[in-house]
Amino acid sequence: MVQHKWWKESTVYQIWPASYKDSNGDGIGDIPGIISTLDYLKFLGVDVIWISPMYDSPQDDMGYDISNYEEIFEKYGTLHDMEQLIVETHKRGMKLMLDLVINHTSSEHQWFKESRSSKQDPKRDWYIWKPPKYDSNGIRHPPNNWGSYFSGSAWKYDELTDEYYLHLFAESQPDLNWENVETREAIYKSAIKFWLEKGIDGFRIDTAGMYSKVQTFQDVPITFPDKDFQPCKLYHQHGPRIHEFHKEIYDRFMKPFHAISVGEVGHSTKEESLKYVSEEAKEMNMMFLFDVVEVGVDSRDRFRFKGYDLIDFKKGIQSQSGFIEGTDAWSTVFIENHDQPRSISRFGNDYPQFRVKSGKALAVLQTTLTGTEFIYQGQEIGMVNVPRDWDIKEYKDINTINYYKDNNLDKSTDKEIFDVINLMARDNARSPVQWDSSKNAGFTSGIPWTRVHDNYRDVNVANQKKDPNSILHFWKKALELRKKYKDLFIYGKFEIIDIDNPDVFSFLKINDKGEKAYISINFTPKTIPFTNLLTNETITLILSNCDEKFNEQIMTPYEARIYLVNLT
Ligand code: TEU
Ligand code: CA
Hints:
The chain has 3 domains: 6-105 and 181-471, TIM Barrel, CATH 3.20.20; 110-166, Alpha-Beta Complex (Oligo-1,6-glucosidase, domain 2), CATH 3.90.400; 493-565, Immunoglobulin-like (Sandwich). Helix content is 26%, strand content 16%. The protein contains 16 helices and 22 strands. The chain has helices at residues 6-9, 31-35, 38-44, 79-91, 110-117, 181-197, 242-254, 270-277, 310-321, 343-347, 355-368, 398-406, 415-424, 461-466, 471-484, 486-489; strands at 11-15, 48-51, 55-56, 68-72, 95-100, 129-130, 133-134, 140-141, 155-158, 163-166, 202-205, 260-266, 286-289, 332-333, 372-376, 493-496, 504-510, 516-522, 528-529, 539-544, 554-555, 560-565. Strand 17 (504-510) and strand 18 (516-522) form a beta hairpin. It starts with 5 loop residues before the first helix and ends with a strand. The protein binds 1-O-alpha-D-glucopyranosyl-D-fructose and calcium ion. Calcium ion (CA) binds at residues 22-24, 26, 28, 30, 75.
């Protein structure tokens, strides 16, 4: 039997500070802005808030490049503002999680500045430095063929000491050397303990599978023959000492502070996943896997998109939330975050006539799956991808920009790849939250740092609060039902009953007493007949997104239903 825990039943809301709410008119979201919306989050039914990095940073990767773990990025506010946020969140009975980015720091971090300064520096070994390789013509090359997630080589040459340092992400994000115990202690003290002592309730752990690199630093087998640098997960994902490192973090910090943690692991087999999140393993409470958010994507390169159908999508859900079946482990339910496009554009339909309906259908799916629920800012009001006709200059993400440059793309000739960029870019999640229909969507009274979506007069929090039929109210209601029937929706066993149906997604949730809920979602823009797959059982509708007159026999476009089976 699955153990009941508060964090399993929590609804977590992710805030991406730059684009959430600006309080002082400088065009950038900030911590006082977050504080001003806490009552709204409470109204929605949020239990835990996770904020993406708000630490001091040059913002090359929007704060995932930290230059001081113990300070706040000045545009976001001060340490005092953060302390206020902790107090105000707790006052409302909610909890606060921070983002723990410890695979790398910014190259502006004092540790790296010292490490870089000379080969003899006491912090030299805090990062990963290697000498160049020379070919027969005496030309200098990086130590191996590893590619960065943000295009090009994962190594950057530094003239000062004639060596390369490793950066799995941007050049300005040097990887820390976890093999060095002194480095680990410094990370723990500054990034973890400092904040737990301030009273935060847990962490989302960034790139949680990547700290332990295979120490031979050899070339990886070639995946893309036309490229000089290759995906190198093989030598840094779930490396030899990764579980030892996580156990150390759990035993020494998470456990004594009663903090919760969710690791961004991404790609992992069931066997490997259990090492992170089973009760017995005691490394972290839960993890993010990318089976759903990367369906149809070549995981070696986020902009290679092959397309997918509903059956692939169902399989993604099965492997992401179903992997805990019969174990003591726990999982997460999410379909959006700051690294992903908007779910309606990707898995629903963002045409005006289907936006709301398909957004509600996705809410039905998300609130009935097993695991801890995560919602990303703006998802609850049905925000969608940025318009296809926006110029490339509106895209601000280093991931998109490097890709664009590295592949010498030209918008007029490379139409297909631009369609994929528009569909998949992280920029889609980063347009400002639409609070009301005033200028700049009520996000800022100044000039927004990044463009506000053109649809904000139609899609915003203020309008939806007034409209009982809005997506916002639908999410609120669906989250309430999730808790009311938590043994079915949060803890229940998940069973797909129409895996081969390319149009409809139907599944059961079954509790320990054998009681059932039956969920059925039409994933097409067509009206189709409804077939009750549970013959001989009485079904009672408890939620549907149907605006038209409900007809049991017919499923309207993107119609979604939750039935209780033999229960009322
Ligand atoms: O993401 C790491 C990650 O695993 C990738 O999937 C990332 O989303 C992808 O490479 C982008 O193409 C984390 C953060 O969530 C992300 O925002 C940061 O950019 C990254 O780490 C580096 O800190
Ligand atoms: Ca501001």
